[in-house]
Amino acid sequence: MVGDYSVPVERLWEAYADPRQLEKFWGPETWPATFTRHDMAVGGLSQYYMTGPDGSTSRGWWRFLAVEPGRRMELEDGFANEDGSPNDAMPSMRMVFTFEPTSTRSRFTSVTYFTSAESMQQLVDMGMVEGLKSALGQLDDVLADLATFAADRATGTKILDDARVRISRVIRGTVEQVWRAHHEPELLKRWLLGPEGWTMPVCDVASGVGDSYRYEWEAEDGSNRFGFEGELIESEPPHRAVTTERMNGMEGPGTVNELTLTPHRAGTLMTLVITYPNAEVRDMVLGTGMTDGMEASYARLENELLETAAV
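The structure assignment produced for this chain is given below.
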């Protein structure tokens, strides 16, 4: 499948690298997609579900085999069970996406390899070709939408399902710089402060999988101390880290936080997927103004990186 687009290759690539944009077109028009994970690095995994007109869902996954930013990606593509695990009863395939400049700006080419002729015919009979055509027919509108995905937009929040929320922001800095800023105590103490007027006296960072961390904040006058603690359960520097989190001293389940850093033409796309125990807890936390506090911190982080680069 081949498509020509009147945007630079970098803009076309960005539409596939950014889950906020990808889910605007990956799925037929009547079956829009929601990406609950999009870790676009070699060995990384994407998970998504498509919702039909009657509310039913179809789930899928990608496993990235090769990623050459701005040029090419190769991935396994398959169906998933309700819990997101691969559905081995259904065929999978290998897909190669290439991106190249042309006289009309850029071209996208998709080549699909099937495990057998029978598998190919099964998927064709299920409407795969028509579904892809419908999906990619929406890409022009996504590419033309410069405002929604502008790099200078503030921190955004999207509810993914009953338990999960995705926090997104483009930060002007390299992936390596943003990763360091999330893992070095002296840097964290300078930016992870929320609104003005707070300090971070305790910043014990987890250095390896299985290690615990503990963060505490207090007002500048020493009052209102609070904090969070948890465990580092996955770490794939410099693009993915997964932690548990609960408020210090609190019993019961906390959250799982999945941080993903993806190169962006304006810097780094920071994506944080938070899984709450249930929708009630999710809505209570969002209602506290969490996103505004996170935007204050991310703006401070960005300024920190820009000042460092200027030295």
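Interim note for the steering committee: The chain has two domains: 2-144, 156-310. The longest strand covers residues 57-68.
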